[in-house]
Specification:
By secondary structure, this protein is mainly alpha-helical. It is built from 4 helices and 4 strands; from the N terminus they run E-E-H-H-H-E-E-H. The protein has helices spanning about 25-40, 50-55, 60-65, 95-125, and strands at about 1-5, 10-15, 80, 90. The strands form 2 sheets. Strands 1-2 form a two-stranded antiparallel ribbon. The chain has a two-stranded antiparallel sheet with strand order 3-4. The longest helix is centred in the C-terminal third of the chain and has 28 residues, at about 95-125.
């Protein structure tokens, strides 16, 4: 474990994992998240810039919560982040449904290739045989 400065308040704290912010600032940020989530629920057509202005916070924090799939804007909202793969506008996460399926298929194919090689290795490996 290392000791680092909190990105929000600048105090030293023992960093374990996750965001480089102290536990006190993390709890404050979590409370703000709950308020933002309620606000978006009550105002379904609001955008990220309006939310950031309303709560005096950065738009990048709103985007991070959306990318982490903790926060979702309604379909009526003008909000949209680009898919990290193809650039299509999405309301939540990092990838659109099409790109998620493509990634899933690539990982599935890679897994099948590895399993096939393992089976071939087991079949072709010399073993003691008794008659």
């Amino acid at each position: 474990m290392e000791v680092i400065n909190c990105r929000c308040c600048g105090k030293l704290f023992q960093y374990q994992s996750g965001q480089p912010i102290c536990p006190r600032c993390a709890s404050v940020l979590e409370e703000r998240f709950k308020l933002v989530k309620e606000y978006i629920y009550d105002h379904p057509e609001v955008g990220a810039a309006e939310v950031a202005k309303e709560f005096d916070m950065s738009v990048s924090t709103i985007y991070r919560w959306v990318r982490e799939e903790r926060l979702e804007f309604s379909q009526n909202s003008a909000f949209g982040l680009p898919c990290e793969c193809c650039g299509e506008k999405i309301k939540i996460g990092r990838y659109c449904k099409k790109c998620k399926n493509e990634l899933k298929n690539h990982f599935s194919d890679a897994y099948k290739k590895v399993e096939k090689k393992k089976k071939e290795k087991e079949i072709n490996s010399p073993k003691m045989r008794f008659f």
